[in-house]
Amino acid sequence: MTSGITRRAFEAGLVDVHLWNPRDFADGNYRRVDDRPFGGGPGMVMLAEPLARCLRTIQAARADAVPAPVVLFSPLGSTLTHAAVEVWSASAGAVLVCGRYEGIDQRFIDRFVTHQVSLGDFVLSGGEVAALALLDAVARLQPGVLNDAGSHQFDSFNPALDGLLDCPHYTRPETWEEHKVPEALLSGHHLQIERWRRDQRLQITAQRRPDLLQAARAAGRLNRADEALLKSLPPT
């Protein structure tokens, strides 16, 4: 978070992160934050009490009178989407709980967690990587962070692209290892360029994420030219 695009968000105070260690709120010389699970089984489970003490201290330290949402990164959570990132980017912040070991005592989750978030159908060693992913996605949507204010409008999944995947991009030279840049992008004809990009978005989305294409069609985001292009594509 101290380099690249996200650095601008933090230096401008648009995004701020405070780190809290649950071990600082644990008892005993060893500051244990985990124990064996009731009922047996592999792994260790994070204790509810140190997490609760830590969370209460965090909420008390916040300037907002209303407690912040508590986000737990978990395979049980809703998959993180662009729409969700946009909501979080406009929010007043949240407490991000990064689990470890086999999991967290369910009583803490039931008592305090307001949102559970997953990056996808796989398991990480801890929630830190997921937290960094969310922070990066949120930071780049803050005003003034990207050099071109409209850059994020052309990201995959963005409503500005009707929720479709983005098109391929090319830069100089015009020919690289006998592969040329598509003629449409060299034409200087803005409508032709935009139609090419639109066709590429439709084709790639149809091939790789037909669910996104179905959602765009159901929302009435596809026009006649779009449908004509899709009908011309070979069956997948």
What can you tell me about this protein's structure?
This protein has about 240 residues and is of the alpha/beta class. The protein folds into two domains: about 5-140, Alpha/beta knot; about 155-230, Trp Operon Repressor, Chain A (Orthogonal Bundle), CATH 1.10.1270. The chain contains nine helices and eight strands. The chain has helices at about 5-10, 50-60, 80-90, 105-110, 130-140, 185, 190-210, 210-220, 225-230, and strands at about 35, 45, 70-80, 95, 105, 115-120, 175, 180. The strands form three sheets. Strands 1-2-5 form a three-stranded mixed beta sheet. Strand 7 and strand 8 form a beta hairpin. Helix 7 crosses helix 8 (about 210-220). The mean pLDDT is about 90. It catalyses: guanosine(37) in tRNA + S-adenosyl-L-methionine = N(1)-methylguanosine(37) in tRNA + S-adenosyl-L-homocysteine + H(+). It is an enzyme of class 2 (transferase). Belongs to the RNA methyltransferase TrmD family. Pfam families: tRNA_m1G_MT (PF01746).
